[in-house]
Amino acid sequence: MFQGPSSLSLDAKGRLSVPTRHRDVLSKEEAGQGALTITKHPHGCLMVFPRPEWDKFRERIAALPASAQWWKRIFLGNAMDVEMDAAGRVLVAPELREAVGIGKDAILLGMGNYFELWDKATYQAKEAEAMNAPTPEAFEDFSF
User: Fold this and answer.
1) Domain total for the chain?
2) Do residues 122 and 101 make contact, with C-beta atoms less than 8 angstroms apart?
3) Of the ranges 10-14, 30-34, 110-114, which one carries the lowest mean pLDDT score?
4) Is 129 in a helix, a strand, or coil?
5) How far apart are CA 132 and CA 105, in angstroms?
6) What is the mean pLDDT of the chain?
7) Which of 23, 41, 80, 117 reaches 20 to 30 Å from 89, CA-CA?
8) Range of the domain at 103
9) Cβ atoms within 10 A of the Cβ of 24, count?
């Protein structure tokens, strides 16, 4: 279960260093031994999956009806398989970085069984917008 934010800087080649607390888990056999898949998310970030979790997600997306063809294209058509190198770095393809506007400064959010990778300024702006919006209906009966 991945959770928590990590502020990161991508290097000149577009590689991100996976935080140590996640690197150890991702290196394990049951998590795909450092094999990851990165794809677009419709909210303007990238989704980063350990390969076993990607395989489950991919099956669910592939099973969608023809009416969801564009969503299949977004998720499956943009998916790129990557490997964590010996230093715990992952190359984020220029096409994917450009598509969601990720520059040098990024935020990696643990979202349970996958991560979201955001451009730092974009994430901060969207988070502020969400915090200033009315509380979603789903939280009406939720106690904090």
Assistant:
1) 1
2) yes
3) 30-34
4) helix
5) 24
6) 95
7) 41
8) 2-139
9) 12
